[in-house]
Amino acid sequence: MLLEIKDLHVSYGAIRALKGVSVQVGEGEIVALIGANGAGKTTTLRTASGLIRPQSGDITYKGKSLIKMPPHQIVSMGISQIPEGRKVFTRMTVLENLEMGAYIRKDKDNVKADIRNIFQRFPRLEERKHQLSGTLSGGEQQMLAMGRALMSQPNLLLMDEPSMGLAPMLVQEIFTIIKEINQTGTTILLVEQNAHMALSIANRAYVLETGEVVLAGPAQELANDPQVQKAYLGE
Ligand code: ATP
């Protein structure tokens, strides 16, 4: 396994956000974490990025434990997070945001080539490259957040609610791009409230409820599971 989250316990003061979550992500997979508001999906991702320290449990990446590493070291190991709500640097231009994504890289010549690649994938970002990011639409900001994360050349992308707040047509476009990013060799752990879309592109998925994994399996199987359909697919 590329990423192994083992029996993770996380509390915010008296609130027990994760009560023994275990999730595995294999090289090349898209793995989805689905579940209602407050189930613990974001907490799981933020712990993997080193932004939250767990009370107990372990997270290993290529066999190495991440839980004592600072976030920047986790990024340099090949893990990049696209945060909930995009969090682009609104007072910087599109181009500057992409350059920030490459801040840990030493190969500055290749950075330029990668920015060209990002612009090929997201032509709308190129059209707006000198625009301040705060003036972009929600969908464009999501594309920029994805582009910025790709600039660190991650092997594993942690994505938090990429579809949040986007119009249905854009949601479709973003999910198509996620699939393409995966097909070029990037493993993806995807947190989504849009269970329908998440299950349509994922290989496997985990269902979280109040800090615990209650169901896990191949995405197709979960999409056909009556319990999942009733609770998460509105069927
Ligand atoms: P959402 O879709 O709303 O992000 P989620 O599944 O990602 O939901 P988390 O954000 O991980 O869930 O939250 C899990 C639990 O921890 C919830 O009960 C939430 O209220 C609580 N929680 C999250 N962040 C904090 C915080 N900074 N301080 C206190 N409680 C928190």
Automatic annotation (TrEMBL):
Annotated SMART domains: AAA
InterPro entries assigned: AAA+_ATPase (IPR003593), ABC_branched_ATPase_LivF/BraG (IPR030660), ABC_transporter-like_ATP-bd (IPR003439), ABC_transporter-like_CS (IPR017871), BCAA_Transport_ATP-bd_LivF (IPR052156), P-loop_NTPase (IPR027417)
Keyword RNA-binding: no
Name the UniProt record assigns to this protein: ABC transporter related protein
Segments forming a coiled coil: none
Pfam family, one: ABC_tran
Superkingdom of this protein's organism: Bacteria
GO molecular function: ATP binding; ATP hydrolysis activity; branched-chain amino acid transmembrane transporter activity
Keyword tags: Amino-acid transport, ATP-binding, Nucleotide-binding, Transport
Keyword Chloroplast recorded: no
Domain ABC transporter: 3-235
Segments passing through the bilayer: none
Entry similarity comment: Belongs to the ABC transporter superfamily.
GO biological process: one example: L-amino acid transport
